[in-house]
Amino acid sequence: MIADVTIYALCEPDTDEVRYIGRSTNPRIRLYAHEGHARQGTRHVPSSEWVRGLLALGKKPLLRVLEVVAVNEAAAAEQRAIAAYRSAGCRLLNATHNGGGGRPRKGPSLLDRNMTIHMPPALREQLIEAAKIDRRRIGEFTRILLEDAFKDWQRAHQNQGKQDGEQ
User: Fold this and answer.
1) Which residue did the predictor score with more confidence, 164 or 72?
2) Which of 9, 68, 134, 154 could be cross-linked to 64 through a Cys-Cys bond (beta carbons 3.0 to 4.6 Å apart)?
């Protein structure tokens, strides 16, 4: 079963002002991703620039959980939160006005396809949907949520290959 989705806010560390609203199945790891993008300078969107500025001052954004919802409610919940905070006068740095991230994905990478090719179709479809919601590559999402299960599967697959080779 795929985990619920957390609607979260990134806040100013000194004032607790909400500056960004997002969604993730693992908000702590998503916070690390925001910080990583800022450190690397690979994304030139307002939220990354803001986090980069905080990091330069030796500070980090605060993570506040706003709501936890089912996967199929995540997009609407994120949009509602963004609209509510904007109407309350918050200076949000979201790249879009309705959530969903600032740029669309171009499709699964070769690694994503290779990691999911031998999975049961139902599990693969759940991962694809969850990865869309969480705005991550399927491979990254799989590693975060199913790291141990994937390692077990990989060991079993390798053992099966060895047994097939011995026969």
Assistant:
1) 72
2) 9
3-state SS class at 131: helix
Which DSSP helix (H) or strand (E) runs through 7? strand 5-11
pLDDT digits (tens, 9 = 90+) for 91-138: 999 877 666 654 444 444 444 444 455 566 776 677 667 666 665 555
CATH 3.40.1440.10 residue ranges for the chain? 1-103
Q: How far lies 5's CA from each of 12, 56, 83, 133, 162, in Å? A: 23, 30, 18, 8, 40
Six-digit token string for 69? 């919802």
Residue with tokens 């959980």: 65
Q: For the domain 1-103, what is the CATH code?
A: 3.40.1440.10
